[in-house]
UniProtKB/TrEMBL annotation:
Residues 193-245 form the HAMP domain. It is a multi-pass membrane protein. CDD domains: HAMP, HisKA. InterPro entries: 2C_sensor_his_kinase (IPR050980), HAMP_dom (IPR003660), HATPase_C_sf (IPR036890), HATPase_dom (IPR003594), His_kinase_dom (IPR005467), HisK_dim/P_dom (IPR003661), HisK_dim/P_sf (IPR036097), Sig_transdc_His_kin-like_C (IPR004358). Keywords: ATP-binding, Cell membrane, Kinase, Membrane, Nucleotide-binding, Phosphoprotein, Transferase, Transmembrane, Transmembrane helix. Its EC number is 2.7.13.3. The lineage of its organism: Bacteria, Pseudomonadati, Pseudomonadota, Betaproteobacteria, Rhodocyclales. GO terms for molecular function: ATP binding; phosphorelay sensor kinase activity. It comes from Propionivibrio dicarboxylicus. GO terms for cellular component: plasma membrane. This is histidine kinase.
Length: 472
């Protein structure tokens, strides 16, 4: 046995020795978070805008081309008539003279030199105006010739002979996009900054919790996106703090409680070899058996309390007849009352009163109260029930020594014993009533200690009635 314990201890030390916590990394960078989010939003916005512009321009292209044809039709016809008034050999000089008068370029080329799309080429050969892909150059075939009048680029900025400058449309676009980018940067900044603050606060809180500072809490979230996360983290931290405090208290209290039965067992083991008489050896063996039973009960009660405190098990409510349920549970524990008078009084209950309770945990609460009453009662224990408004009340009264008013709340804390006794007959571990409190809190109720009409203590279980009275 010693070898096994030594092996387990060595393995535990090996695990602890090999464990190296991951080093903490830096903090969230506001500038990096802002830049990445801004580029994402701005890039998406620009991509969507260009796509929308492409779709719209493609959709209205035919309308624009038609407008350009109708707008330039008269001018081109006049140029054509002016050319046909002159000999063909003078056309180049005439075009140059006209070109100087227009803000866009004029020229005459041979038809075979042009490479147009099929649809535009068919229009050109049919005597209609053709337009290039950019919609800025017009072509008109001079009647009964192989020559084509070229008009454009119509935009003055596209004419290489004109002074170069940024087109007005481009300047408007640049100004508009700059303004949009600036406004978007301000909006993103005011959105990202609270997010960054919340992320930093959550990171610092998580780091503090990881370093063992379980009292740390995240401040109130500035961004609504992190409200639930902040509440969840703080709830987790509060639960961790409570569980660790409970485990420390439980470990310390159990260690203290173990000393008495272990000391008695050690004394009995040391005395056993020197006991010559059979009755003395039997007395020592009985003492050791009682101490083992006490240890077993202590461990069982500690595990039960720890489970209720840690897990908050899910309730499985069942509707029961309160009077019938009380009688059944009290009958199951009467044998522990020895010569005590244990009675159940349901006279204040309406016939067939139904309540909802968990059939696994609520009997544990009632049994602990009955054990406590049996332990301290002189001659009587009375279990009674009544309905007060929308709540069920179950009273457990005894005629024992009672509880002082200033100590009635303390009895529901773990490892609290008011009698200061170490005798197995009256001294428990202070866990039974603590478990009663947890069970009633689980049911949305409470457990109360008060003075009993019988002269001793009264413990009351109080929880909501979810079902109405049914007449039998």
């Amino acid at each position: 046995m010693t070898g096994n314990n030594g092996g387990r201890n060595r393995r535990l030390l090996d695990i602890l020795w090999r464990y190296k916590p991951t080093p903490w990394r830096g903090s969230y960078s506001l500038s990096r978070l802002f830049l990445s989010f801004y580029l994402l939003v701005m890039g998406s916005f620009v991509a969507i805008a260009f796509f929308a512009d492409f779709v719209i321009s493609t959709s209205v292209r035919d309308i624009t081309d038609d407008y350009t044809r109708r707008f330039m039709q008269g001018t081109i016809v006049l140029i054509e008539e002016d050319l046909f008034r002159k000999p063909r050999k003078d056309w180049p000089d005439a075009i140059r003279a006209l070109d100087r008068k227009f803000s866009y370029k004029l020229d005459i080329v041979e038809r075979w030199t042009l490479k147009l799309k099929r649809k535009q080429a068919e229009k050109l050969d049919a005597g209609e105006l053709a337009i290039d892909t950019d919609g800025d150059v017009l072509y008109h075939r001079l009647k009964n010739t192989s020559q084509v009048l070229v008009v454009g680029p119509l935009s003055p900025n596209a004419n290489p002979e004109r002074p170069r400058s940024l087109p007005l449309e481009l300047r408007v676009r640049l100004l508009t996009w700059s303004l949009i980018g600036f406004i978007l940067a301000i909006a993103v900044w005011f959105w990202v900054r609270p997010v960054w603050r919340d992320l930093e606060a959550l990171r610092k809180t998580a780091r503090a919790l990881g370093e063992g500072h379980f009292e740390s809490r995240a401040p109130e979230a500035r961004s609504r996106a992190f409200e639930l996360l902040t509440e969840t983290l703080n709830g987790m931290a509060e639960r961790m703090q409570r569980l660790i405090a409970m485990q420390k208290e439980l470990s310390s209290a159990i260690s203290h409680e173990l000393r008495t039965p272990i000391a008695r067992m050690r004394f009995a083991v040391e005395m056993l070899p020197d006991a010559d008489q059979a009755d003395e050896r039997e007395r020592l063996q009985t003492m050791m058996n009682d101490d083992l039973e006490e240890l077993d009960n202590l461990i069982d009660a500690s595990l039960t309390y720890s489970r209720f405190e840690r897990e908050q098990p899910e309730l499985h409510l069942t509707s029961v007849d309160l009077a019938e349920w009380l009688n059944d549970n009290v009958d199951g524990i009467r044998i522990l009352g020895r010569s005590l008078e244990i009675t159940v009084d349901c006279s204040n209950l309406p016939p067939g009163q139904q309540v909802e309770l968990d059939l696994k945990s609520m009997p544990y609460a009632l049994t602990n109260l009955l054990r406590n009453a049996i332990k301290y009662a002189h001659s009587r224990v009375v279990v009674s029930a009544q309905i007060s408004g929308s709540r069920a009340l179950v009273h457990v009264d005894d005629d024992g020594i009672g509880i002082a008013p200033e100590e009635r709340q303390k009895v529901f804390s773990a490892f609290t014993r008011l009698d200061r006794s170490r005798d197995r007959a009256t001294g428990g571990y202070g866990l039974g009533l603590a478990i009663v409190r947890l069970v009633l809190e689980q049911h949305g109720g409470s457990a109360i200690a008060d003075a009993s009409p019988l002269g001793g203590a009264r413990f009351t279980l109080n929880w909501p009635v979810l079902h109405s009275v049914t007449q039998s």
